[in-house]
């Protein structure tokens, strides 16, 4: 059966980014660059590659640099143009007016609440969610792979990524059922389980395809782990009512909300770049000798 197309992506970017202070006092975490592109650009590119047509950013105070990034930079473009500079580098930042919507989450009281803030824009269709501080590297991209999986099974498909047992208390974790290749049936979900109690080591690294019914659940949901309104708790209620799978992602994942992960992403992606890769390799060899 053909599934309803995933046309809309929600990017919750209302968080405070406290782990990166003072860098994130005036600059949103999502605007921190990995090599020469801000984190948000990687997530947006991944969405476009997956066939997403509408982008919804759930922002907060101090996040206006994200809006500027996806706008015309009139003076910059005029000046570059008059100097004969190549403007194609800015192409991924430009969208047809109306394809991007900004919604404000007045208070950062949890990821579930941030997603719920986008309910009117999402409407009654399945939608994708991207946490831009999770940088997923693969060809095809992580969401394109998830959309292909969703087209087979429908319902809800979250990304799944295996982490060492001693890290399961940091994430939303899947209780797995039957396994068919990359697709794992989801029998339960738990947010940040205490060490030793996790039902598996399959965590959800910030990529989701969900049915719109999750918005109705979020409507009345109270705070969960960390006293925040958790997306995981709302998703858990869909299990048993709609198909729910995790798609095991086999590519590279960098947690760029964390300093070590962010540094690793910069290092790994710099090594891949033709113009700087060799310089970095030499530097690393000399440093680590
Ligand atoms: P994090 O847990 O990484 O929180 O949020 P954070 O505020 O961004 O960063 P730290 O922990 O203080 O350093 C995961 C994702 O959920 C979004 C964040 O913007 C990030 O993309 N989020 C979180 C919201 O949009 N609103 C919230 O209320 C909470």
What does this entry look like structurally?
- The chain is α/β, with parallel strands linked by helices and 289 residues long.
- The protein folds into two domains: 8-257, Alpha-Beta Complex (Spore Coat Polysaccharide Biosynthesis Protein SpsA, Chain A); 258-289, no CATH class.
- Helix content is 30%, strand content 24%.
- It contains ten helices and 14 strands.
- The chain has helices at residues 39-49, 64-69, 74-82, 111-116, 119-122, 142-153, 213-219, 231-236, 259-271, 277-288; strands at residues 8-12, 33-34, 37-38, 54-59, 100-104, 127-130, 134-137, 156-162, 172-180, 183-191, 202-203, 207-210, 244-248, 252-255.
- The strands form three sheets. Strands 1, 4, 5, 6, 8, 9, 10, 11, 12 and 13 form a ten-stranded mixed beta sheet that branches. Strands 2-3 form a two-stranded antiparallel sheet.
- Strand 2 (33-34) and strand 3 (37-38) form a beta hairpin.
- It is globular.
- 39% of the residues are buried.
Write the layout of secondary structure elements.
Blueprint: E1 8-12, E2 33-34, E3 37-38, H1 39-49, E4 54-59, H2 64-69, H3 74-82, E5 100-104, H4 111-116, H5 119-122, E6 127-130, E7 134-137, H6 142-153, E8 156-162, E9 172-180, E10 183-191, E11 202-203, E12 207-210, H7 213-219, H8 231-236, E13 244-248, E14 252-255, H9 259-271, H10 277-288
Parallel strand pairs: 1-4, 1-6, 4-5, 8-13
Antiparallel strand pairs: 2-3, 6-12, 7-14, 8-11, 8-12, 9-10, 10-13
The chain binds uridine 5'-triphosphate (UTP).
């Amino acid at each position: 059966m053909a599934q309803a197309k995933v046309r809309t992506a929600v990017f919750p970017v209302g968080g405070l980014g406290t782990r990166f202070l003072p860098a994130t006092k005036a600059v949103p975490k999502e605007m921190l660059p990995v090599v020469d592109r801000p984190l948000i650009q990687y997530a947006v590119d991944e969405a476009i590659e997956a066939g997403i047509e509408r982008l919804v950013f759930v922002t907060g105070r101090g996040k206006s640099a994200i809006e500027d990034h996806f706008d015309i930079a009139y003076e910059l473009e005029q000046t570059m143009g008059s100097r004969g500079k190549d403007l194609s580098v800015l192409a991924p930042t430009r969208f047809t007016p109306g394809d991007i919507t900004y919604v404000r989450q007045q208070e950062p009281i949890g990821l579930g609440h941030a997603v719920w803030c986008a309910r009117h824009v999402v409407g009654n269709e399945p939608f994708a969610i991207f946490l831009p501080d999770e940088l997923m590297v693969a060809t095809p991209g992580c969401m394109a792979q998830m959309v292909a999986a969703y087209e087979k099974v429908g319902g809800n498909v979250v990304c799944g990524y295996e982490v060492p047992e001693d890290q399961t208390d940091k994430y939303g974790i899947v209780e797995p059922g039957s396994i068919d290749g990359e697709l794992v049936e989801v029998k339960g979900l738990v947010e940040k389980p205490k060490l030793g109690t996790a039902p598996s080591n399959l965590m959800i690294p910030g990529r989701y395809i969900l049915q719109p019914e999750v918005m109705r659940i979020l409507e009345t949901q109270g705070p969960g782990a960390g006293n925040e309104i958790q997306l995981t708790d709302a998703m858990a209620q869909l299990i048993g009512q709609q198909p729910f799978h995790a798609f095991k992602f086999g590519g590279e994942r960098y947690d760029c909300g964390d300093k070590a992960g962010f540094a690793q992403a910069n290092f790994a992606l710099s090594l891949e770049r033709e113009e700087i890769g060799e310089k970095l390799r030499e530097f690393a060899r000399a440093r680590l000798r």
